[in-house]
Amino acid sequence: MLTNELMQKIRRIEIRTRRLVNDSFAGEYHSVFKGRGMEFDEVRPYQFGDEIRTIDWNVTARTGEPHVKRYVEERELSVMLVVDASASENFGSVNQFKRELAAELTAVLSFAATTNNDKVGLLIFTDQIELFIPPRKGRKHVLRLIRELLAFEPQNTGTDIKMALDKVNQILKRRSIVFLVSDFMADPEGYKQALSITNKRHDVIAVDLNDPLDNEIGNVGMLALEDPESGDIVWVDTSSRRWQQAYHQRMDALENKKTRIFKQSSVDRIDIYTNEEYTTPLTRFFQERAMRIRH
């Protein structure tokens, strides 16, 4: 249901993200995500400075005047936003929930894509496919995606990244750009093969949503922790050095696994935090990828 509060939130996100896209991200997006190649456009008379290799010898012989073939970039791409809507996304200890952060991030990416005349689609998942919107163009379509991300109520609470990636491979027949947006709290061993397969067919970028409390829970005495995906509640003594050490070891192990599997799959990763501006890591991603392309 579109409440006034939700409409105002969508409008705020649109104004903020469109400004960011117009200021910088649209151009950087274009330079990083090239089209599918060059396609023939026309034959025109040769001009001084034209590359000799582009001369169309058949037309040149027929007309008696040198002509060259002109090619343009086949620009249109499809971008698929694959967004984790499991219960752990409804968490944020500082400025906003991960879910709200995901909506704003995907708004920036969607507007950057549509500004470059690319199509954008959305797949929302938990441990099942909750919603699929096929890639389309235009501002109205982008606003619909933002609305769904903010208002959609998933039926399930778990996470199955492998299932989501398998679905992407099933529905996307042409090579596309896939932004996989999640906090990746699931065991990476469960999705590593699917991630590798998907990145061979498409261009996968992992957008890893983080919150300070994911890695650091202070000494606040006895604390009831609820697993958002199972609903289980466990009481822990945060003053215990043993518990703190075990918690850090668990999170460090998860981080090391993620890093290794993203690297093995050749998947780029963008780390985004709920307590920091997302513009800096996004800009860094575009710049670093652009440098790799140039070299």
Structure overview:
By secondary structure, the protein is α/β, with parallel strands linked by helices. It has 2 domains: 4-32 and 77-294, Rossmann fold; 37-74, no CATH class. The chain has helices spanning 4-32, 57-63, 98-115, 139-151, 161-171, 192-201, 212-215, 241-264, 279-294, and strands spanning 37-45, 67-74, 78-84, 119-125, 129-136, 177-182, 203-210, 222-226, 233-237, 268-273. The strands form 3 sheets. Strands 5-4-3-6-7-10 form a 6-stranded mixed sheet, sandwiched between helices. Strands 1-2 form a two-stranded antiparallel ribbon. β4 (119-125) and β5 (129-136) form a beta hairpin. α1 crosses α3 (98-115), α1 (4-32) runs parallel beside α9 (279-294) and α3 (98-115) runs antiparallel to α4 (139-151). The chain is elongated.
CATH superfamily of the largest domain: von Willebrand factor, type A domain
What would the CATH topology of the largest domain be? Rossmann fold
Which range best describes the helical content: under 10%, 10-25%, 25-40%, 40-55%, 55-70% or over 70%? Answer: 40-55%
What structural category characterises the helix and strand content?
alpha/beta
Q: How many individual helices?
A: 9
Succession of helices and strands: HEHEEHEEHHEHEHEEHEH
CATH class of the largest domain: Alpha Beta
Question: Alpha-carbon distance between the termini?
Answer: 49 Å
Quaternary state of the chains: single chain
Instruction: Give a count of the beta strands, DSSP E runs of length 2 or more.
Output: 10
What is the topology, as strand order, of the major beta sheet?
5-4-3-6-7-10
- The domain count comes to 2
